[in-house]
Amino acid sequence: MTMNERKFRSAGKLLGTTLLAAGLFAAPQAAFADGYKIGVVEQQLANPFFGKLQAAAVQRAKELGLTTMTAESTVAGDAASQVNGIENMINQGVKGIVLDPGSASALVPIVKKARAAGIIVVTTNTSLEPPTAADASYETDNFAAGVLIGQWAKAKIGANPRVTLIDYDLSDKTSKARHDGFLKGFGLTETSKEIAGTALTQANVDGGQQAMENLIAAHPDINVAYTINEPAAQGAALAAKRAGKKVVFTSIDGSCSGVRSVVDGTIGATVMQFPSNMGRLAVDAIDKAVKTGEKPSGINNSGTVLITDQPVAGIESKDSKWGLANCWGE
Amino acid sequence: MNSSPNVGPDLTGGGASAPREEGWRQAVAIAVAQPVAGPLFALVVIKAVFSLTTTTFLNVGNLSLIFQQSVVIGTLALGQTLIILVAGIDLACAAIMVLATVVIGSVATEGNVALAFVLGAVACVAVAAINGIAVTRFRLPPFIATLGMLTIITAGARLYTNSRSYPISSDWLMLMGSGPASGLVTFSYGSMLWIGLTFLLSYALTQTAWGTHVYAVGSSPSAARLNGIYVDRVIFSVYALAGVFYFLAAWQALGRTPIADPSGYQAANLDSITAVVIGGSSLFGGRGGVAGTFVGTLIVTVLKNGLTQAGIDSLYQQIGTGILVILAVGWDQYFRSGRKA
Amino acid sequence: MSDKRIVMQGIGLSKRFGHVVAMDHADFELASGEIMAVVGDNGAGKSTLIRVLSGASVPDEGKVFLDGEEVHFRSPLEARLVGIETVYQELAVATEMDVAQNLFLGRELRKPGWAGRWFRQLDKAEMRAQAAEHMQALGIRIQSIRQKVETLSGGQRQAVAVARASAWGRKVVILDEPTAALGVRETRQVLDLILRVRDHGLAVVLICHNMPDVFEIADRIHIHRLGRRATVVDPKVVKPNQVVAIMTGALDAASVPSALLAPVAA
Predict the structure, then answer these.
(1) Looking at the domain covering A13-139+275-296, what would its CATH class be?
(2) In angstroms, rounded to a whole number, what is the distance separating the alpha carbons of residues C185 and C154?
(3) Residue C110: beta bridge partners?
(4) What is the reported pLDDT for B222?
(5) In CATH, what is the architecture of A142-273+305-326?
(6) Which site among B304, B308, B312 would you substitute to test the A interface, given the most A Cβ atoms closer than 10 Å to its Cβ?
(7) Confidence bin at B304 (pLDDT 50/70/90)
């Protein structure tokens, strides 16, 4: 999943969880066309990543002559609206559901019910726990993405690396996969001496900035940074610049704003993910299963491309110009 | 006047600080009389622990950094203090501030900085005033009114910006991030504004009739009403004025992080409440003040800063802050129950 | 009593709530410098009468006169502006504020000169001095004028409320059951305080259930029955059991001497 959405996380986390109960509204909508009907269940559409994924799925369904019903969650982690949406879709007799799960576990029972009703359920962006709870998944291989920037950073920095990792909640699957992938790619373990310090953030600009300020104050020799996403990288880069430190930043997402930061050198390298691929591939898989009976399976990588203007030998990458042409969001 | 002085009601018995009381009760009396003493003590202890456990915590550069990191939360918390003093709460304060930053960012990107600045201010005060109307005119519980506002504003800011962020380039908009600097120490205009606002609000609360009425309304709305205070007007003025503080916080935020990010400062809604509560203001209203909030803000920042530097998992920071909140509220509860008995 | 001047008068006051007639052409009078106790059975309409006199309710019919001039109160604030202060049964003190702040609540003094004019700065020293002076004049002993009201006992809080009303009431102070929640000793202190308020020249309306208290401090007793005034009696002339009998209707009001000053309206 993209890290643009964050849960409330602070002293008053109790309040935060109460907030999640606030906006439980699904907004199913039906469009009428020929062919059978499928459902597209997204996370909050105000996030352009999810918006792009949904639009791609709906577009592809249209091309195939299918009718779509959509539903989405209202805030991060809001599985309840998605459950409501899926219930409506089961009642409406959809043949397949494209699901971007707001929770890896909370949606498992309703998905089981849908599949028992003969509906093909394909997850996108992130999978359920266990992944086999759905028929198949189309998502970014976040571990592979982490490995890519880890390898690139190691080649770029050369000798005497002092590494920092600016994370989001590591109990989050995506966050953990990216973190572990980066360590693997760099050839580090959690306890390696090369790691100067780590910090948890809300994966946004001000969080990245504050974390990096604190890390630089404690470890002025930091020279390479992993960041959970591009806003966090932008904030952290600002902190480094203000402190007069030269730090190589790596990130993951491939939003257009992030790619622009690669253009201006703020971010050394980022890995692009492809929400439109996810939506398109998921609808194709459902259509194939409905028409031929051949069900999709497994976790399928929807694509990871390293974007950098400082390519290193042995690691395949595209430049920022390509990145700007293929990025998502604004 | 004909009765002897001893016949009248004797008001000498109920004091909390009679000399015969034991030491801890005197400490308690001091803490009640000087509400800022408790938080200040906590701050000193936390600072001492970090300066012993890390080598970098106590250097001037880091202390300057702590100050910079406190400015935005601190200014939000001033507005939050006002609202909490009238027994309200604002769960949306940072969301309102973020709305202002993206309004400013989007309009400034079109080229008109002055218009951006004015529209940002209008947005902040208008939204905060709507909260005030919801609480006074429509009698909504502040928790519900501002919770609703939080979700509306957060989603609204995302929709308005299509989730993009706006880099800020205007010197005027970034002014609060600059200021006289010497080596590692920066005394930004944003920090000066924070300190200035703290003094100004402290004056307004303790030296003017309006301030007295704010405390009276928070302490006992029915008593205030029976004494001829227009309770709703006072509450509304508090919410609207908080909007002014949120706007100034937005200006400070753009100075500190010159990117207007609709997903920014999500933790600040609750951090500001935490700062006020740790600073000794009562969630039940009528007790507390901005000096405590100033110290409470520093505690919130110091915990984040110190634990990150000490290499301790940030989740412990959240646990630590949570414990402080519970202690602060428990302390307040203890005294209230003691007093009402 | 003939040397007394009538401060406040109500003539033919009526108030209905739907089909319920809470007050039915009630009359009322209050002379300067006296304590007028208002007694009546539960539901006799005492509260409605007091609400009308203090501005909390607007009567459907009838007139209220203050110093001979007709007045129309639409809110307690309007009554207060012409010199009528009320101490409500629900105590109107702000517990987290000190004694001086409570005495001046809603009527704070600003500093003279530029500090008050331009910076709206309160004159705390002056307010404390005046508050201390007033408390002393009423014989209320106090450790500090800056003591928070929450540290005071119920009787002490009541004393602050009464002191506050007497400080601002230029003509009339209305006290609604001021001793209802108090113990014996505290009741004694508050009754003494009410006497001193009277001695300062204010007219006091005292709503009270406790007949011994009424007979101890009241100068006259207004007996309310079935939504109107049954009569006004002099406690030095009439016995407590007679008052109770009139309240309950067991005794005809005309059978005891009236202490009314003004001729009864038609």
Answers:
(1) alpha beta
(2) 11
(3) C122
(4) 87
(5) 3-Layer(aba) Sandwich (3.40)
(6) B308
(7) confident
* C189–B212 C-beta distance less than 8 A: no
Note whether residue B32 is domain-resident: no
Contact between B106 and B120 (Cβ < 8 Å):
no
Query: Are residues B308 and A211, on separate chains, in Cβ contact within 8 Å?
Result: yes
Measure the CA–CA gap between A143 and A205, rounded to whole angstroms.
23
Q: Look at C107 and B11 and tell me if their CB atoms are within 8 Å.
A: no
> Could you read off the pLDDT of B171-222 as tens digits, one per residue?
999 999 888 888 778 889 999 999 999 999 999 999 999 999 999 999 989 8
**Dihedral sign, Cα of residue A273, residue A279, residue A281, residue A285:** positive
CB C231 within 8 A of CB C253: yes
pLDDT tens digits, residue range A112-157? 999 999 999 999 998 998 999 999 999 999 999 999 999 999 999 9
Neighbours of C185 (CB within 10 A): 11
CA–CA separation, C136 and C158 (whole Å): 16
Q: Place A15 in a pLDDT band, splitting at 50, 70 and 90.
A: very low
* C-alpha pair distances (Å), C147 with each of B12, C140, C156: 9, 13, 11
Q: A130: cis peptide before it, omega within 30°?
A: yes
- Length of chain C (residues): 266
**Assigned token pair, B13:** 């018995």
Predicted complex ipTM: 0.81
What is the percent of chain A with per-residue pLDDT over 90, rounded to a whole number?
Answer: 74
CB A17 within 8 A of CB A62: no
Contact A165, A196 (CB under 8 A): no
- State the virtual CA torsion across B224, B227, B233, B237 in degrees, nearest 10: -60
Report the residue of chain C nearest B221, measured CA to CA: C94
Q: pLDDT tens across C26-41, in order?
A: 999 999 999 999 999 8
Q: Which two three-digit tokens encode residue C75?
A: 């809110």
CATH of the domain at B255: 1.10.3470
Confidence of residue A4 (pLDDT cuts 50, 70, 90): very low
Helix runs in C108-266, H state only: 114-118, 124-137, 154-168, 184-199, 211-217, 240-248
Q: Check: CB of residue C99 under 8 Å from CB of residue C146.
A: yes
- Take residue A264 and report the two structure tokens written for it: 């201006």
Q: Measuring CA to CA, how many Å separate C230 from each of B267, C150, C225, C254?
A: 68, 41, 6, 9
> Does residue B339 sit within a domain?
no
Q: How many whole angstroms separate alpha carbon A178 and alpha carbon A65?
A: 37
User: Which of C148, C149, C188, C189 would you mutate first to test chain B, the one with the most B CBs within 10 A?
Assistant: C148
Nearest CA to B105 among B193, B178, B173, B188?
B173
Categorize the per-residue pLDDT at B33 as very low, low, confident or very high, splitting at 50, 70 and 90. Answer: low
Q: Is B269 on the interface with A (CB under 8 A)?
A: yes
φ and ψ at residue C158, rounded to 5 degrees: -60, -40
Which domains does chain C possess?
A: 6-96+148-255 (3.40.50.300)
Measure Cα distances from A136 to A66, A82, A130, A284, B328 in Å.
Answer: 20, 18, 11, 12, 50
Cβ atoms of B295 and B36 closer than 8 Å:
yes
**Which chain B residues are closer than 8 Å to C80 by Cβ?**
228
Helix then strand count (H, E) for chain B reads: 13, 5
Question: Per-residue confidence at B19, pLDDT binned at 50, 70, 90?
Answer: very low
**Tokens at residue A306, please?**
């390293």
Where are chain A's structural domains?
A: 13-139+275-296, 142-273+305-326
C61-66 vs C69-71, strand pairing mode: antiparallel
- Both tokens of A114, joined, read 């849908």
